[in-house]
Amino acid sequence: MNWLEQLTLKSPAGFWNPILWLAFLVIFAIIGYIIYSRGNRGYKPNTEQVKPYLSGNPEPGKEEIRVRAGDIYWGFVEALKSYYSVLIRMHSGDVRDYILWYLGVGAVILFILVGGV
Question: Which tens digit of pLDDT belongs to each residue from 89-111?
Answer without folding.
Answer: 888 889 999 999 999 999 999 99
